[in-house]
Amino acid sequence: MAFMTLILMVSFVLGLVAVASNPSPYFAALGLVFSAGVGCGLLVGFGSSFLSLVLFLIYLGGMMVVFAYTAALAAEPYPESWGDRPVLLYVVGYLGLLILAGISFVVDWGWGGWMGGGECGEMSMVRGDFSGVALLYSWGGGLLVLGGWMLFLTLFVVLELARGSSWGALRVV
């Protein structure tokens, strides 16, 4: 389990480096979706499976809007990818800074311990995040519907703003 958590943490950091180092919005949105998925996997590893599911669904809705917005506004015929020279220099620079920060973290604070989410109660029959399911659907059901409706409305607003005079991303239809 510790090895899987380490792999997820490294993947999360690499996804964030992919977002920070890429000037093309297509690849940056892809890195952001990858980082969101790996971050939700980390939450599952630490014992918050329901929170991970809710965040992943919210991220999917938000990333759909972000990707539609970036695809509509960025009309580059040849976007720069991660293998191009300027982007590769950014990647190497960010990874070098992260390695230096990681070394100073280990030297100053030590490795420490990672606590999972299963330690919330000694004699508990239900995990701590499962009790949130009933509360979310009983008290927060209206807010879930409102949040989904707002994401749906935002998608249409972004597509209408990006359309402009030349029909933007909808010109092919």
From TrEMBL:
It comes from Aetobatus flagellum. It comes from the Eukaryota. It is an enzyme of class 7 (translocase). It is found in: Mitochondrion membrane. This is NADH-ubiquinone oxidoreductase chain 6. Keywords: Electron transport, Membrane, Mitochondrion, NAD, Respiratory chain, Signal, Translocase, Transmembrane, Transmembrane helix, Transport, Ubiquinone. GO terms for cellular component: mitochondrial membrane. Its EC number is 7.1.1.2. GO terms for molecular function: NADH dehydrogenase (ubiquinone) activity. It is a multi-pass membrane protein. Core subunit of the mitochondrial membrane respiratory chain NADH dehydrogenase (Complex I) which catalyzes electron transfer from NADH through the respiratory chain, using ubiquinone as an electron acceptor. Essential for the catalytic activity and assembly of complex I. Its main location: mitochondrion. The chain crosses the membrane at residues 51-75, 87-107, 136-159. It catalyses: a ubiquinone + NADH + 5 H(+)(in) = a ubiquinol + NAD(+) + 4 H(+)(out). InterPro entries: ComplexI_Subunit6, NADH_UbQ/plastoQ_OxRdtase_su6, Nuo/plastoQ_OxRdtase_6_NuoJ. Belongs to the complex I subunit 6 family. The gene is ND6. Residues 1-15 form the signal peptide.
